[in-house]
Each structure stands twice: as structure tokens, then as C-alpha cells.
Design a protein that fits this description.
four-stranded antiparallel sheet, Methylamine Dehydrogenase, Chain H, mainly beta
Amino acid sequence: MGVRFIPVQHAPRSLAWQGDDLVSWTAGGRRWGPDGTEGAAEFFWGFPFDAATVPAPGPYRVVYQERGTKGVLLEGRRVVRELNRSFSHATSFDYPVALGRLGDGRDVVVHCPDEYHTLQIEDARSGERLTAGAREPEDVFHSRLGLSPDGRHLLSIGWFWQPFGTAQVFDTAQALADPATLDGEGVLPCEAVTGGEVSAGCWLDADRLVLATGREEWYSPDEEPEALPVLHLGVWSVSGRRWLHRSPVPEPGVLLLPRGDQVVTLHGHPRLLDTVTGRVLAQWPDVAVPTKSLCYSRKSHLTPVAALHPDGSRLAVVQAEGIAVVTLP
């Protein structure tokens, strides 16, 4: 389990794997080969864009301002269209946007183009709004959006006033038939996520998602026994509508990257966790990452930047003066 270090003059704010190369499409557009050689990316976007969506099925990607209101939907080098979100508290929480492919093969972009609490699903190619209609959304700030691998469900890791982090899951087929279903509780029961503050989540597969909680408590286990408690990692089955596993973890809620039945967590340093037991399978304390975990925070709190190779063998983590490439067990 070695760690290789690639020195860089300026730490990238976005990172993705292309084969065995690493690429950043923001802040100058750079590419690093397996030997660490740095070159230019095939295209790049500069200021004000400082973040990019993770690779998704289809030819599209989005570069955006993580704590701003602007984004750009791209197909290769071609600008498809500009994206926007509401200015309401835009400097205080992460830009909500996700790319994915629905079950019928359509590539879509999911975001909140009009208001912070109103999710919209749009056809990526044409821009057609697939969820147009009368809406009465709950007062939730959507953030950290993610479509399930089959495109059937949408995960939002957002927050509401105290502030307090929460999670919602929506059925995209239902949303296309009745857009108002994006305005309510969704298919993840509220009582399942009213224990600890939800700070992170990701899909393990088309049915299972992982949620992590921090130290803040809403209801205690005695009040809500079905909820995910503080400082826990939980695996939820959408079809079964129940927790498959709920395990205590020593660290606050973290950013997650899925790897089979494991997740890579980023909080202070990378850790590899077993999602069944919450056990730390491996960790790399010498690879420093920011401790930000919630989707809302001060603008100065940087989000960890990392990319998991599609085959799960390597993790690239941006450091202050370079990129650490960790070979995972």
C-alpha cells in the first residue's frame, strides 16, 4: 500500500482520472502522467470556476463555482449552456449539481436553477426541463446531489435551518410523472435521518446508499430508534426501506467515495472503511486533507479534493504542494 507523491506548483481544485492519467479541468487545465510528468489538459476553464462534477456516464461534465452561482455544462470542449443557481446563501453551501443517465438512456443534469429548494431535472442535450410544473417545495437547501448508478433515484445531502444537515432520496421516474414529488419527503423516511446530523452520503449500487453522521444530534436513539445516531455510518436499502447496517465510527461525518462494499473517507486524512461494520481497514495519516465534512460552512473551509480510480485500485488526493497517489489494498 504505497503512496506516490506528484509535486505541483499550484494545488488543483478539481481532479479526475482519465485512464492512468490525472486531469484537472479548472484553474489552468493540467494533466499528470503515471510518471508525474505535467502537461496541458485537452481544455480548461479558469476563474471563476473552481470545481467540476465527478465523471458520469455520457459525454457531459459541469465546471462551476463551488460557493458561487455560475456553472457551465460542457460536451467535450463545446459549451452546451450556462447554468445558474439562486444567490440565496450561495457563498455558504456547496453548489447543487449532478450528471447522470436515466433508465431510458437520456443524459440529464439535475440542479436548482431557480430557487435553492426547487430541484429540476433537465435533458442535458436539449435543455428541456423534464420536471416543469406547479411546485410547493419544503424549505430545504439542496446540495451534494448524486444519481444512483441506474438513474432511478436521486440523493441530496443538504441542510435546513438551525442549520442542520439532512438527506433526501427521490424517485426520478415518479418525478418525471409528477414533479411535485421532488418537493416532499421523498422515499427516504424522515424518521430514518433525524438522529445525527447527516454530513455525507454516496451510492454503493443502484439500491444501497451510505450515509454518515457527525456529532450534532436532533433526536436521541430513545426518541427515534429507527434513526441513524451521531457518529455512525449507515447502509440504507431503498427497496427494503430499512437500514441494512448501522455502525459507530470514531470520526465526524466525512466525504465518501464508494469502493464495492467499502468507502474511502476524507477527514483529516484518508481512511478505508468497511460499510458493514464501520471498521477502519486501512488509513494514511501522512496524507493530509481538510477536515470539512458538511455541505455548509464558511467559504474559507476548503473541500477535500480527491479522485478514486474507476477500478478502485488507486486514490489521488490533492495536498498543499502536490498530489498523493495511494495504492489501495
